[in-house]
Amino acid sequence: MARIKPGAQVKKDPQNFGINTYNVYEWKRIDYARNYLCPFCTKQIHSNKSFGDANSSNIIQICPNCRAPTLFSYGSQFPLFSEYTLPDNVPELVANLYKEALASFSVSSFTSVVMLCRKILMNLSVENGAKEGLAFTQYIDFLNESGLIPPKGRPSVEKIRIMGNEANHTIKIYTEDNANTILKLTKYLLVFNYELTD
Predict the structure, then answer these.
(1) What is d(CA 184, CA 99) in angstroms, rounded to the nearest whole number?
(2) Which of 151, 159, 149 is nearest to 181 (CA)?
């Protein structure tokens, strides 16, 4: 694959969606500070080390704690970070799904997060002895009857199931707030099962 030479210009053409021509290497140190949650070291930080493109619509902040770069493009952060990280002691099958949900969140795939958390309910059930192939309402019943849902926690688990069903079977698109809420509820369910046990 041919490499773009330093100083090369991006040509304006119909396939470039009308973006103005600018130097692809024209990133420079800019005087801009920002508070944000670093997705790499998971610290709330204040960064004043910034690099911007030609029109400063894209800004890279450097974390003063871990030195990792985070891109802010037209107001959106890449990658994103959810505070609802994976709890301890979660078995691999369930843990991998939760990690996948977090990875989806990091790239703003919020509807995927909701779908994956619904699937976690099934995997959590099967991990604890339920049969595969049951209806999702049966998995919820199994979790409840097995004491795997906290007291008064069934409405929260039903919310995960219902929103996951809508994500799978309708054209509804979910938001960052929706995804973070579902991650929070799912994390609390996993904490109850794997961190608050003997």
Answers:
(1) 13
(2) 159
- What are the C-alpha distances in Å from 58 to residues 16, 67, 81, 106, 193? 17, 18, 18, 18, 42
Cis peptide before 79 (omega within 30 of 0): yes
How many C-beta atoms lie closer than 10 Å to residue 154's C-beta?
14
CA nearest to 56, candidates 20, 80, 21, 32: 32
Half-sphere CA count of 186, side-chain side, radius 13 A: 35
pLDDT band at 134 (very low <50, low <70, confident <90, very high): very high
pLDDT digits (tens, 9 = 90+) for 73-103: 887 888 887 878 888 899 999 999 999 999 8
The answer to whether residue 4 scores a pLDDT higher than 70 is no
Helices (H), 110-175: 110-127, 136-145, 154-169
What is the end-to-end Cα distance of the chain in Å, rounded?
56
